[in-house]
Amino acid sequence: MATLGVLAVSVLTLKAMHDDAWWRAERNAQNILHLIHQDAARNLELLDLSLEAVSVGLSLPGLAELSPDLRHAVLFDRGTTARYLGTIRALDERGRILAESRAGTASGSDYAKRDYFQHHRLVNDDRLFVSAPFASNRTGEWSIAISRRLSKPDGSFGGVVVGTLRLDYFHDLFSRIEIGPRDAISLVRVDGTFLMRQPFLPTEIGRSVATSPIFRNLVEARSGAFVAHATTDHVERAYTFTRVGDYPLIASVAMSVDDIFAAWMQRAIVIGPIVLVLCLLTTLLTAMLHRELGRRATAEAQVTAANAELSRLAVTDPLTGLANRRLFDAMLSREWRRCARTGCSVSLLMIDADNFKAYNDLYGHQAGDRVLKAVADRFVSSIRPSRDLVCRVGGEEFAILLPQTSEVQAMQLAEAIRRSVEDAAIPHRGRPKGRVTVTIGVAQSRPSDGTTKSAFIEAADRALYEGKAGGRNRVRSAGAAPAFRPSGIATDRAA
Questions:
Q1: Residue of 162, 225, 293, 456 with fewest CB within 10 Å of its CB?
Q2: Order of strands across the sheet that contains 397-403
Q3: What pLDDT score does 493 carry?
Q4: What domains, with CATH codes, occur in the chain?
Q5: Active-site residue, selected from the candidate residues 26, 52, 204, 396
């Protein structure tokens, strides 16, 4: 038994070291992807903004009357001279050049035959298109085209505004990243067209991997990780991938599984014989050690379970089972910091059960508790459980935190919740309709604009009390004067 105990401890130690090696590899891959995502998304966004500037500039009245130099200054900013960036062109519906950032670079190309031109001619939308890689007729350098559709006033196809980005940009970006001898960094389009790889293989550029099982795993989600054997060299690799911003590009990092665990394997070969020797020396102490470890494990499990229960109770409302005000404050602070970094928006619903004191007076507090549980269930069933947070912040007042949610989406959700509570038809003689209703205040903010949390909460509270002052059983937005109510629903004007 003593030998088995020592062996068990050794196996657990080796497993922990094994898991740590895997965790470090995952973190390294995620850091690499984060670097690629940040750098590439920023540069693609700058190019996209330049395209938008050209598109807007072409629609300006009187542009044709300006001198060539002034017209060029209006359409093309300094960003068009950035390194790796090629010529930005505006093409008409026949593929003829309307304007270009660098004169004399057209080289007689038939732009109407390019994939981006054909795509925008056939597809009427304003989404950015990333072309397949192509070699320059003049220099032979590989590039990709980033393009947007130009539309005429009647919405018909009016041409394309397109800019080119040399693939040397991705090659130089990937080359600055240190990876193992059997690791790889790749960039592909969502249709499976290979754009760049590190280690660099020129023959890979433009090759389609759409039928590869590995590629099918890459397009299943915006980001993720999996383990697979490469079809080229049959090396088992751990793949970590992510979409590059909102662009149709996928960046992936592939690390050799054998290389990930190489250092661990060396340690295991050394530790194994040592453990066998120690097992022989500790045979007489195994029974005592096993008993002591069992007691300690039980005590730690009990403490952990107790601490987990205390932690859960500390952030849970005992009546409804929802998060309480403490957890609401913590989650709002965390989401606020995240949105301040990323520039995303967040919405907040402040909800109050209408005339709830009167309900308690009429039906009693136990019935009031049952009503609070019932409306809380309605709130929970209406949200995205993996992202949104429903809290009871006090009495009959609730709050719903909605990360990455626009004001329109928040208003729609609020109206759905209001209607759901009303449709539950919970009797309430103190209300004009004779049923329990709620009033909801909605606020939406973008923390990166400098808004404070307190101002954000005050805005939702103010909208809530405006809704109550306006008759209750309604949704009120902090940014809109009229109450958000569908047509055909009677307005409850009771105080």
A1: 293
A2: 389-394, 397-403, 346-353, 438-445, 475-477
A3: 28
A4: 325-477 (3.30.70.270)
A5: 396
